[in-house]
Amino acid sequence: RLRRAKLMMQPLCEVCLSRGIITPAEDVHHDKSFITDAGVDYNLAYCIDNLISLCKKCHSEIHSKQGKTQGGLKEWLSQG
What is the C-alpha to C-alpha distance for residues 13 and 32, in angstroms, rounded to an integer? Predict the structure, then answer.
């Protein structure tokens, strides 16, 4: 339900949009990881504001770079 709600709110890939490209979003990704040293942070896991809409290509690229960016994905995108 959360995935569907996010895609309805933002139906375009947010990474592509940051690059000036219009691409339909097919996936959602957690901006900041909800897995912590202490376990699962359910506030982040179920927070719609912690989701980002992505196309399949960008989602795959993000997972291949996972752990190489500090902070959240939205922060990384805003840095250009």
Answer: 17
Q: What is the pLDDT of residues 25-35, one digit of tens each?
A: 999 999 888 88
Per-residue pLDDT of 55-70, as tens digits, reads: 999 988 887 776 555 5
For residue 27, what are its two tokens? 């996936």
Distance between CA atoms of 13 and 24, rounded to whole angstroms?
6
Per-state percent for the chain, helix, strand, coil, to nearest 5: 45, 20, 40
Residue among 24, 35, 8 at smallest CA distance from 58: 24
What tokens were used for 2? 């959360």
| Rounded to 5°, angle at Cα 5 from 65 and 49 | 55
Average of pLDDT values for 13-18? Answer: 94
